[in-house]
Amino acid sequence: MQNSADLNVWESWRDRLLVADVGSAISNAIIEEAKHKAQVPTAELFAAIIAKRLRRLEAMVSLEGRQPGVIMTMGINGSGKTTTIAKLSRYYLAQQKTLLLAAGDTFRAAAREQLEKWAATLGGLEVISGSGDPAAVAYKATAAGVERELDVVLIDTSGRLPTQAHLMAELGKIRRAIDKALPGAPHELLLILDATGGQNSLRQIQGFSAAAGVTGVIVTKLDGSAKGGFLLAMAAQTPLPVRFIGVGEGSDDLALFDADEYAAALMGVEPQARLQ
Fold it and tell me: Looking at residue 60, what is its pLDDT?
């Protein structure tokens, strides 16, 4: 039987997981798994357990065989969608891909201006925009990408909450417009998740998946105090590929998701050898 001192040590680690937004049920499961592996808990042990659980989320975006590959981004207000599109643009430009951007957030003039500003700093990328109907903008951009035989079309959408039924339904309309311009598109529907949202991100995943379908997520704002431990609950409940993580405000602050590095950062240690 464990003495009270031992129990306090394990409880302190449970609290640490909770602070990292891991969630109560998953935190308890990780503690129990750690107890079966060692008598003395360490950050390295927890990092290895967490990495193994997150590894199922590792998967890069693949647009091979698509011309263009169409990526549609979604998310709530303030999640960092427009900035993330700029980061994705830089990522594909580094691979010598030809790009076209679509300012599908037609409700906020500032969003279009922000995207155009980013496009200018990235070498004068073209931004297709319009007023009123975002589905029309998405259709026009996709059709232009097909006509010009471009490699990638990145489509922004306006921020919305999963509880806003009419706005969520609009996502389905946008997706259908893209498919009309290029059957089978969009090839990626990426949900942008703000790491500071914690467990609320799980509700966002459910809402956006029901409205339009989600093929992967990008976690933003991991450069501050946000820990992003909610990915452990996502891995257990609604596993979706984590395509990238955003680690800063610059257009080049986008990294591929690596479970071992992510878990090590979560626990404040150096990445360890993979736990089998």
Answer: 85
